[in-house]
Amino acid sequence: MNVQFDRIALIGIGLIGSSLAYDIRRLGLAKEIVVATRSADTLKRAEELGLGDRYTTSSADAVKDADLVIVSVPVGASESVAKEIAASLKPGAVVTDVGSTKASVIAQMLPHMPDNVHFIPGHPLAGTEKSGPDAGFPGLFEGRWCIFTPVAGTDEMALKRLRSFWEALGSKVDEMDAEHHDKVLAIVSHLPHIIAYNIVGTADDLETVTESEVIKYSASGFRDFTRLAASDPTMWRDVCLHNRDAILEMLARFSEDLAYLQRAIRWGEGDKIFELFTRTRAIRRSIIQAGQDVDAPDFGRHALDKK
Ligand code: NAP
C-alpha cells in the first residue's frame, strides 16, 4: 500500500475515470474514492462495477474534503464542472483534469479556481476508442506519457505530489506549456482522428461502393481507420471545437502535403512516392523502439484471428 491521498474525488467516470478508479484501488493510492457523474444511469453502473467507496450525482458534494480532484469529462464541460465544484473545494486540494486539449481547459477552469487550491492541468496520453465506465481497465496508464501544462506560479510541492501519483500508475510525466501541448497533440492525435472520421465518412458516402462491400472487404487498410472513427463523438466534437486553431493549422499542412503526393501520383513520380513511404516507415520503427507500440502485425486482428 502506498497511500498518497486520504480522499480522491473522480468527477466523470467514463473510460478514463473508471481506469483511474481501478488503479487507485489496486495500488492503494487513496483511503477513499468518491465517484461523481451527472447521470443516474452511469452512477449506477459505476456502483455495480464497484469503482468507488461513495457515489453521488453532485460534483460539489464529491469534492468536499477531497485532497485530490480529477476531472474526467469531455473538454467542453470543463467550465460547468469548475463552476459547480469551486465553492466546495478543500483548501490545499490538488485539482487536475485529463482533457485532451489544454489551453481551452485552462481558460474554462482557472478563473473559477479559488486561490487556496492547486490547479494543475494534465493529459494522460492513453486511451481506446471505447467510452463509459465499462470501458475502463487497470493498467491503462502503464508505460504511457502524462503531460502536465502548469500555469504560472504553480506550487512545486503540489506538482511533485501529482507527479508521484501518475508515476505510481506507471506513467512517465512531462511538462510543457498548454499551447505547445495543443500543437503537438493536434498532429499526433487530433488530426489522425479527423482523417479517420473523414475517410470512413467518404467510404460511407460512395454510391459506387455499397455498404456491404465496405464491411466485407474492410481488411485492406480501411479497418484500421474504423477503429479511430468509432471513438466517442462527444469527446471528439469537443476536441475539434476546443483546439480549433492548432487543428486548422495542421489540416492546412496536411492538405499541402497531400497535394504534393497527389501530384506525384498524377505524374507517375515513383521516386518521390518511394522516398516518402520509406521515410514514414522509419517513423513506425522509432515508435516501436520508444516502447509506444509493439511490432506485432496486428492492430486488433490478433483477437479476431483467435475466434
Ligand atoms: P467517457 O468515457 O465518454 O466519459 C465521460 C464522463 O463525463 C462520464 O462520466 C459522463 O457522465 C461525463 N460527462 C459527459 N458529458 C458531461 C457534461 N456535459 N457535464 C458533466 N459531465 C459530463 O469519456 P472519457 O473517454 O473518459 O474522456 C474523458 C476525458 O478524458 C475527455 O476530456 C477526453 O478528452 C480525455 N481523454 C480521453 C482519452 C480517450 O482515449 N478516451 C484519452 C485521454 C484523455 P454521464 O455518463 O453521467 O453523462
Automatic annotation (TrEMBL):
Keywords recorded for this protein, A-Z: Amino-acid biosynthesis, Aromatic amino acid biosynthesis, NAD, Oxidoreductase, Tyrosine biosynthesis
SUPFAM superfamilies according to UniProt: 6-phosphogluconate dehydrogenase C-terminal domain-like, NAD(P)-binding Rossmann-fold domains
Domain Prephenate/arogenate dehydrogenase: 6-295
GO biological process: tyrosine biosynthetic process
Pfam families xrefs: PDH_C, PDH_N
Signal peptide from the UniProt entry: none
Molecular function GO labels: NAD+ binding; prephenate dehydrogenase (NAD+) activity; prephenate dehydrogenase (NADP+) activity
Catalytic activity annotation: prephenate + NAD(+) = 3-(4-hydroxyphenyl)pyruvate + CO2 + NADH
Biochemical pathway: Amino-acid biosynthesis; L-tyrosine biosynthesis; (4-hydroxyphenyl)pyruvate from prephenate (NAD(+) route): step 1/1
E.C. number(s) listed in UniProt: 1.3.1.12
Membrane-spanning parts: none
Family affiliation: Belongs to the prephenate/arogenate dehydrogenase family.
Name the record gives this protein: prephenate dehydrogenase
